[in-house]
């Protein structure tokens, strides 16, 4: 059984979109080819669209995604729509497709509009001399504040999941990889914890904290101390994992 949900503005292109899904393994251009998920781009009558194919879940998870919890593809689509309603940028959602057996979910796909971006947030981490770095970080703080004010807790708020487009002296931020997200009110501690995965340097923490504190009407030290605490704890956790993994592989 196949479940297909297409945005009304793309309903006229249903057959073409389903053709892409049917030929996903052999057609399309690779955007990313990960161990778990694959993204390919396709030409939809002159418009480039991206299709994300999620890894086929194991039996128990397949049952859960069929009968209990929405699939990652469905969540990606619905979360993108919700972000768009709140004027938070993400590649426009087009459709999601699910293939089911009697027992559970098999293949699932999320289709979105392709955007041409200039760089992602990782570029700011790797290059302290990146052009307009301070301005970008200040505007990114504004973007994060907007997220939190709209009760968006983006659980995968990591450097590769924010794409950045330059428009004159302004920068637009687009969220991707949306399937892990909660919509809830966040206090200041929870807001700063939400930014812990960004792998921020102390200088980046200071710039972001200063602008965020201005917007939230908080003291700089209050915001900065919380962000530094959560960021440091997260880095230590990841570094410990890397250390023990490396030590284990040497045996």
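^ Assign residues to that structure.
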């Amino acid at each position: 059984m196949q479940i297909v949900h297409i945005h009304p503005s793309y309903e006229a292109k249903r057959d073409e979109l389903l053709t892409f899904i049917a030929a996903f393994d052999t057609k399309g251009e690779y955007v990313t080819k990960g161990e778990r998920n694959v993204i390919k781009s396709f030409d939809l009558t002159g418009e480039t669209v991206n299709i994300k194919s999620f890894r086929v879940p194991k039996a128990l998870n397949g049952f859960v995604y069929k009968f209990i919890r929405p699939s990652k593809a469905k969540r990606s689509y619905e979360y993108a729509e919700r972000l768009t309603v709140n004027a938070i940028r993400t590649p426009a959602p087009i459709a999601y497709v699910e293939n089911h057996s009697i027992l559970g979910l098999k293949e699932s796909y999320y289709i979105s509009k392709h955007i041409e971006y200039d760089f992602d947030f990782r570029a700011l981490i790797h290059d302290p001399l990146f052009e307009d770095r301070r301005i970008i970080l200040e505007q990114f703080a504004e973007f994060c504040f907007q997220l939190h004010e709209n009760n968006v807790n983006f659980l995968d708020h990591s450097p590769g999941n924010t794409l950045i487009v330059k428009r004159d002296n302004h920068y637009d931020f687009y969220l991707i990889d949306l399937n892990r997200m909660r919509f809830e009110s966040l206090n200041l501690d929870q807001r700063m914890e939400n930014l812990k995965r960004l792998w921020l340097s102390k200088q980046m923490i200071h710039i972001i904290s200063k602008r965020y504190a201005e917007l939230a009407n908080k003291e700089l030290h209050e915001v900065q101390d919380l962000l530094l605490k959560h960021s440091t704890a997260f880095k230590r956790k990841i570094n410990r994992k890397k250390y023990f993994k490396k030590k284990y592989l040497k045996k």
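The first strand starts at residue 2 and ends at 6.
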